[in-house]
Specification:
It is a single chain. The protein has 14 helices and 17 strands. By secondary structure, the chain is an alpha/beta fold. The chain folds into 4 domains: 125 residues, Response regulator (Rossmann fold, 3-Layer(aba) Sandwich); 116 residues, Beta-Lactamase; 70 residues, Signal transduction histidine kinase, dimerisation/phosphotransfer (DHp) domain (Helix Hairpins); 161 residues, Heat Shock Protein 90 (2-Layer Sandwich). The strands form 4 sheets. Strands 2-1-3-4-5 form a 5-stranded parallel β-sheet, sandwiched between helices. The protein is elongated and about 150 Å long. Bound molecules: adenosine-5'-diphosphate. The site of adenosine-5'-diphosphate has 22 residues, from helix 12 and helix 13.
């Protein structure tokens, strides 16, 4: 032991006590003495000792009781019994109570030193073993902690992860992998990856990282389409794991499902294609009229030339309408976060819109009827969007009406909603066309609508506005009888409960 060992001598014989103290102090040990078991126990409680020399027969508290109590304090302490009755029985009894060895009285200094040194060596080894055990326990705890951290991270990741060893065997995976790659019931530690994943496209990408020629491929990502169990697009990132010598240990692959993103991308580019298509026809027509006018192909008749220019103006007007609708559309898309909702009295909104449109003059002499109770409960909505919604529905009811037809606008609260309907006595919509009327750029083509201008965006804008206010829109129509659009918007909570 690097430090001098602490030794306590407990003996009621002063001669033994002091004799031991002398011998041991001269050997460089720190020595204390006690004259009975009780005193010895108190001292052992106050200060740690490496070794105790204990007499068996003492007044107040004997050696056996002392040993039992000291063992509770420090299981690794070395206790050597000094006994005047060195019989086999006393030795066995002492050993049973935790004694390391015993020395029969009287003893020579050499005898004492031999037993004592052996005892101290045992103590040193025991302490060392205990320290190692504690270190190992600590390491195990740390490893368990790291493992559970890794587990928690892997389990909570949205991206799927698969780890494969050099032999292409599966060594680690997370719940997202089971879900994204549909592997439930198929994963098993040590199973060949080709048996786990059936999609050839995926196996091909993962295998690339194992290719000995692809040493530059320490990490790469690829987009992969899979067909089973449903069509999905995944971004697969593969990284080879190497040890410090550069030896390949295995591969970590992550899979991110980007199917939804892809769909949005597709919808967007489809929308751009539709817009381009819708812009081209009126622009080509305008160019045609202007060409005919400028090159003189249309002849010199001023009235005919004027007619052509009028047509060009009409087409450019519809182009402006289209651009305005497109702008409104884009605004609705970007407005999601900053929609300004306020308490609105829809009676006032409806009436002012009817007034505005009524006075815009319509060749069909449409009659208006507004059917709204004196007081309507308030709704929480964006004023500008509500104006847009009413304008689009009412102007459609006028546009697709017949001469001397009627437009009836009504509103009433029902359950937790405000029902607003715009009904007309117009041309109606054929049943098979009804499901499409809310689609972007959809217009019913037929002899009755041929001369009505429009963009096909009005109702899709209406639908978006209604949905962004957590409402619903329904359409009912009978050909040659008329159409009714009903918008249902949620009432403000307090009003709804009244
Ligand atoms: P548009 O600019 O063509 O009016 P909308 O999106 O507003 O575009 O409407 C889509 C199509 O639905 C119209 O082209 C028309 O065929 C039909 N439609 C809309 N409202 C009515 C209505 N009140 N009566 C009959 N048909 C209608």
């Amino acid at each position: 032991m690097a430090e001098a060992a602490n030794i306590l001598v407990v003996d009621d014989e002063k001669g033994i006590r002091e004799g031991c103290r002398r011998i041991l102090t001269s050997e460089g040990f720190a020595v204390d003495v006690a004259e009975n078991g009780k005193e010895g126990l108190d001292m052992a409680k106050a200060k740690p000792y490496d070794l105790m020399l204990i007499d068996l027969m003492m007044p107040v508290m004997g050696g056996i009781e002392l040993m039992e109590q000291v063992r509770q304090l420090d299981p690794e302490i070395i206790m050597i019994v000094i006994t005047g009755f060195a019989t086999i029985e006393t030795a066995v009894d002492a050993m049973k109570h935790g004694a390391y060895d015993y020395i029969p009285k009287p003893f020579a200094p050499d005898q004492l030193m031999a037993v004592l040194n052996r005892g101290l060596e045992t103590r040193r080894l025991r302490l060392q073993a205990e320290q190692l055990r504690q270190e190992r326990d600590q390491k195990l705890l740390e490893i368990a902690g790291e493992k559970s951290k890794l587990h928690t991270i892997m389990n909570s990741m949205a991206d799927a992860i698969l780890v494969i060893n050099r032999e292409h065997q599966l060594v680690l995976w997370n719940p997202a992998a089971l879900k994204t790659l549909n592997l439930a019931g198929q994963v098993q530690l040590g199973k060949d990856i080709a048996e786990v994943i059936r999609e050839k496209n995926l196996i091909d990408v993962i295998s690339k990282a194992f290719n000995p020629d692809s040493s530059q491929y320490t990490m790469f990502s690829e987009e992969v389409e899979i067909a089973e169990p449903e069509r999905k697009t995944l971004i697969v990132s593969v990284a080879a794991v190497r040890d410090e010598k550069g030896q390949e240990l295995g591969i970590v692959s992550t899979f991110r499902d980007i199917t939804a993103l892809k769909e949005v991308e597709e919808v967007k580019s489809q929308f751009v294609r539709m817009v381009a298509h819708e812009l081209r026809a009126p622009l080509a027509a305008i160019e045609g009229y202007l060409n005919a006018y400028l090159t003189g192909v249309a002849g010199k008749d001023p009235q005919f030339n004027r007619q052509m220019l009028e047509r060009a103006r009409l087409r450019s007007k519809s182009l402006i309408e289209l651009v305005n609708d497109l702008l409104q559309f884009a605004r609705l898309e970007s407005k999601r976060a900053e929609r300004k909702k306020e308490l609105l009295d829809m009676k006032e909104v409806i009436e002012s819109n009817v007034e505005l449109l009524k006075n815009q003059g319509d060749s069909k002499d449409v009659q208006f009827q507004v059917d709204i109770p004196d007081k309507l409960p308030f709704i929480e909505a964006d004023r500008a969007e509500m104006d847009q919604l009413m304008t689009n529905l009412i102007s459609n009811a006028m546009k697709y009406n017949v001469k001397n037809g009627k437009v009836i606008v009504s509103a009433r609260p029902e359950a937790h909603f405000l029902h607003i309907s715009v009904a007309d006595t117009g041309i109606g919509i054929e049943e098979q066309c009804l499901p499409c009327i809310f689609d972007e750029f959809y217009r019913v083509r037929g002899p009755k609508t041929r001369y009505t201008t429009g963009t096909g965006l009005g109702l899709s804008i209406v639908k978006r506005i209604v949905e962004s206010h957590f409402g619903r829109i329904e359409a009912e129509s009978t050909v040659d009888k008329g159409t009714t659009f009903t918008v249902k918007l949620p009432l403000r909570q307090v009003d709804a409960s009244q």
